[in-house]
Write a structure and sequence with these properties.
Blueprint: E1 4-7, E2 10-13, E3 18-24, E4 34-39, E5 46-51, E6 57-59, E7 67-72, E8 77-82, E9 91-98, E10 108-111, E11 115-120
Parallel strand pairs: 2-11
Antiparallel strand pairs: 1-3, 3-8, 4-5, 4-9, 5-6, 7-8, 9-10, 9-11
């Protein structure tokens, strides 16, 4: 099974930026859609952004204009650039690989272990 390893989380002040990375352990990375979810304790996991194998992107309304998802197939890595961070962005962020080229809901192939993002006021 493919392994997804996230990095880049941490503590940042409101208005600041962070870039999350998710490295996949296989060379067929480019074939699959990728995404980022986030979860706050006691709440449902929330979809943040997705990117298809053809690099078509989609964002939750709450992050549009502030977050950017991208991928580097040569490095088997997907990124989430987060700008203008707000306290409500505080969550554990998870990288996900979908089962095909498109981000079909609930059709997951693998999940990362999660990385904590904390935004202070």
């Amino acid at each position: 099974q493919v392994q997804l390893v996230e990095s880049g989380g941490g503590l940042v002040q409101s208005g600041g930026s962070l870039r999350l990375s998710c490295a996949a352990s296989e060379i067929t990375f480019s074939m699959y859609a990728m995404g980022w979810y986030r979860q706050v304790p006691g709440k449902q996991r929330e979809l943040v952004a997705t990117i298809t194998s053809g690099e078509r992107t989609n964002y939750a309304d709450s992050v549009k204009g502030r977050f950017t998802i991208s991928r580097d197939n040569a490095k088997n890595t997907v990124y989430l650039q987060m700008n203008s961070l707000k306290t409500e962005d505080t969550a554990v962020y998870y990288c996900v690989q979908y089962s095909g080229s498109y981000a079909v809901e609930h059709s997951f192939r693998s999940w990362g272990q999660g990385t904590q993002v904390t935004v202070s006021s």
